[in-house]
Amino acid sequence: MKFLLQRLAFYVFTAWAALTINFFIPRLIPGDPVTSLINKFQGQMSTDAINSLYVLFGLDKNASIGSQYVDYWGQVFHGDLGLSFTFFPTPVSEILRQSLPWTIALVGITTFASFMIGTSLGVLAGWRRGSIMDGLLPVTTFLSSIPYFWLGLLAITLLAGPDSFFPSSGGYEPGLVPSWNAEFIGSAVQHSLLPAITILISSVSGWILTMRNMMVTVASEDYITVAHAKGLPERRVMVSYAARNALLPNVSGFALSLGFIVGGTLLVEIVFSYPGIGYNLFQAVGAKDYPLMQGVFLVITLSVLVANLLADVAYLLLDPRTRKEG
Amino acid sequence: MKTPVLEIKNFHVDYGLGDEAVQAVRDVTLTLHRGEVLGLAGESGSGKSTLAYGVTRLLPPPGVISGGSVVYHPPSGDPYDVMALTDTELRKFRWAETSIVFQGAMNSLNPVHKVSTQMLDVIKAHEPQLTPQARIARAQEMLKLVGISADRMDAYPHQLSGGMRQRVMIGMALVLEPQVVIMDEPTTALDVVMQRQILAQLVELRERLGFSVLFITHDLSLLVEFSDRIAIMYGGRIVEEARSADLYKDSLHPYSEGLLKSFPALRGARRELAGIPGSPPDLRGMPSGCSFHPRCPQAFDRCSAEIPVLGIPSARNDPNRSVACWLPGRTA
After folding, report:
1. A226 vs B109: CB contact, 8 Å cut-off?
2. Which CATH code, of 3.40.50.300, 3.20.20.370, 3.40.30.10, 3.20.20.70, is assigned to B4-97+178-323?
3. More exposed terminus of chain A, fewer Cβ within 10 Å: N or C?
């Protein structure tokens, strides 16, 4: 428990540091968002309007950096991340609220599925090494070496098109209104299939390889021989003795990859024009949309931190040796 | 009359296949009787552990049992060959009839499971008809017998000391009350005080539970004191077999003699300690004839030409002894 509190304090500190950096970076960049917004409106703005824009963006020239910093924290806690330029005057938090579910649904589910499938296959491949399962290895090594964007583009070229079952872009049929009905969900699933499959193909092999190697290492441990000598059923030895122990490094890998779901989807969402966080970031970079970029970075930072915390908790649960007494 | 419980007959183990194969155990014939402690001694690489793994069919690849049989005599029913068991039968046989305590006391327990989990799953696998309470009671009782208090059931292996872990392993080995317990250097990782305690306890438990022990070690002094009979292994073969007292007082094979001279006697007059010159043979290129002849101080022409056969020594006429040596009065 004490250990967990220590970790928690560490993560709170990291979050504070990340948010503070997030506050200072835009203020250190030459030029400011308001200037670029003014440029966008081609100077057709009154001085009053410009001043109120500065206040709106939390860049009030009359306020000190200290009071700006305090205001910034107040805004963050209210979920107010400023206004986006690209989608002016939509608040950044609103944009993130719309795009986050798409990213989490697509990449979250596929990352989880990839981990489960890859780990299970890796367990089997490691346990029955020398069998047909070993034929899997060159294939997975090959697949894991393909750059993702190339795989995505290839999939679009070969499989997607006007007459194809697989749409080449978007998260759902353009004419539909997002809601919880069968038609919309069906369309969303149909749109997510191709990106999901390509993510799965390029990421599953990593899990297979690491899990197989860990299984091979663990299988030569003494306690595995003892488990065999005890006459336990083969399945129990494989799952409860070998896989259970081999899983530990993979679990932390999984937690880290959960953290990178949000940040790592950039390529997928660009290639498939998928309406998620990564695509937002892409648009924001293109339009010099600082508030949106800041918002996306904030989400990425927080998700990495939460994932790390989850990894710590999972490790505590899975490996008794990491638990400290008292 | 002594009744056999485990008969190893003409047992061969190779590592690898074909011409490249290394013969680690050759033509070993050894009988373990009911209720006795049979010691198996030899240098590193003499094939003692390989024999233990082979007998229980636990040899990791590339180990291959290339010949021989291991006949097990259950307390009731007909004897059967362990080598001929199907996978399911073998699984039932393991631990219930023959359990093993391994060399690595530290690594024999799975670090992520509690002691209780690891003790209960073996009872569950072999006696599924028992209720959970009965299983726990059995495990606790067994731990108490080996001197571990019942509340340690919930401990993880890393919370136990090396001696406690080995006690847990011994308790686990006895939990199904097997007929045979194979111990492969069970106390090598422990200090001598702990060694003595555990062995004393083992002797006591054997008297209560009546199992037989095949005790494998390189520590001949330990065996002399603790076992009923001793078999000496060299280069994959048994070179001498005798009652402990006979072997200690009157060893017939020059190798046994060399081993006995290499440790100090606990009682009696001081004597000169002498090692055995040379090093154990390379299993890939065994010397011709008796594999000990290059190191043997008494070797003569015949030793490098013919392999001596294990048999009753002609000079002793004692059916309980056998030796494989060409010196006069040994192999007939």
Report:
1. yes
2. 3.40.50.300
3. C
